[in-house]
Amino acid sequence: TIRREPPVLPRLHGRLDFAQHYLIAAALAANGGSRLANALGLAKEEEDAKRGSGFSFTDLAADRAGAMLGERLLGSDAATIQQRLAQARQDQDLMPNFTELPEFMSADEFARRFGAVGSSRYQAVIVEIDNRLLRHPILGAQR
After folding, report:
1. Of 86, 90, 97, which is closest to residue 132 (Cα–Cα)?
2. How many other CB atoms sit within 10 Å of the CB of residue 121?
């Protein structure tokens, strides 16, 4: 009999979906740029608001963090970023914790709370996410 170890599913800040968003967005950004990764992440959240688990700014933040990482790993300071990743010991080292952001919103709830994607209320949350990412030692380190 072949003995197999149980699968190890990576988590960020205790959540499997954060790791999935982060890693997929990083791969997309490394191959197609952060605009593509962010656009696909937003499209997924809009679809989730209509038919899934709801629109999640936490998922969008993990997407944006991963997209930023994917671009940083291809930039002129890629070796420095790789060294910092190798020294990461806790989830906070990989991305800020965004668990307090609004999530699980239906399309109606999202519209009531934020209006449309691109509205000033929506943009305020995106600016907060991006500012936190820019202050992160790996994701926002000076190039």
Report:
1. 97
2. 10
pLDDT tens, residue by residue, 82-117: 999 999 999 999 999 999 999 999 999 999 999 999
- The answer to whether the Cα torsion of 130, 106, 33, 96 is positive or negative is positive
Q: Dump the DSSP string for 69-119.
A: HHHHTTSTTHHHHHHHHHT--SHHHHS---TTS--SB-HHHHHHHH-STTS
**What is the C-alpha separation between 73 and 79, in angstroms, rounded?**
8
53-91 pLDDT tens trace = 999 999 999 999 999 999 999 988 899 999 999 999 999
